[in-house]
Amino acid sequence: MTPGARRSLWPPLAVLALLGLAALLLSVTVGSVALSLGDVWAVMLGEGSPLARTLVLDLRVPRSLSAFAVGGLLAVAGALMQVLLRNPLADPYVLGLSGGAAVGALAAMLAGLGGAVITGSAFAGAFFSTLLVFGLAHGTGSWTPSRLLLTGVVVAAGWGAVITLMLAISPAERLPGMLYWLMGDLSYSRTPWPPLALLLLICLLLMPLGRSLNVMARGPLQAAALGVNVRPLEWAIHLAASALTAMAVTTAGSIGFVGLVVPHMLRLVLGNDQRLILPACALAGGTLLVLADTLARTLIAPEQLPVGVITALLGVPTFLYLLYRSR
């Protein structure tokens, strides 16, 4: 990347970073108990009332950072899937990756496992779902983006049936928590650092591949003609999208449409340069989910809505609009 091109990437990323910071500050100050910026600053300095310290350090900051990380993970995963499929309707939720990850995580929960095993099971479910979708869509010939998209929708519906079956046979006392988690729940997110670290790691690893991803978006034949090693890059995209989706699902449950809306909107504004789109997706996706989670926990406070409800209300009309435009 030339110095001039590198400099041109910074202004939009700086704007998105400031918007993300503003969303995080809003999320920390707004709630059933309102806090001023002065209260938050006092807590950060080790002062403030015990109630303010509990609200900021134990509840709102971990939840807000988890929401930012999950939103960034889903948006980057969606951007990668859209590059791979050359289709703006691709998304981990639509293609069944989120459903596969949810099945893997629920299976580990029902077996009484926890921690890293749940994350590993979710990754296995997401990766298996990716292989299943691509294998079924390919069949005996070549796949097209529309055929792959339809296959993904069918597989996602199948995962939904499996999830319903697992809920039907699960213990009654665990059913409410599992249902709320499946709708997207950040209320128990207390460790935001693993998803944040994975988001940063994936973005740093993919940034040098920005030129190859730009060529890949034009199609595998053109990419191969221009010297891109297509097959390893496709597998790298599969693995990265599966890992991002698995971490997002284990952190906050199944949250849809973030990976659909954010990359498409950014491409309308910033263009198709993946060197800019991927970090922009991390920032904009995080900002969107922080705002959605803030709305979810304040709209009917002190009761809380699942954040997946808010993202679905935003994503469904956007999906229909994109589907209409792609006729």
From TrEMBL:
Compartments, as annotated in UniProt: Cell membrane
Membrane topology: Multi-pass membrane protein
GO cellular component terms listed in the entry, alphabetical order: plasma membrane
GO terms classed as biological process: cobalamin transport
Transmembrane segments: 65-85, 92-111, 117-136, 148-172, 192-210, 239-264, 305-324
Signal peptide annotation: none
Matching InterPro entries: ABC_BtuC-like (IPR037294), ABC_transptr_permease_BtuC (IPR000522)
A GO term for molecular function: transmembrane transporter activity
Domain of life: Bacteria
The entry's keywords: Cell membrane, Membrane, Transmembrane, Transmembrane helix, Transport
Family that this chain belongs to: Belongs to the binding-protein-dependent transport system permease family. FecCD subfamily.
Name by which UniProt lists this protein: ABC transporter permease
Organism: Halomonas heilongjiangensis
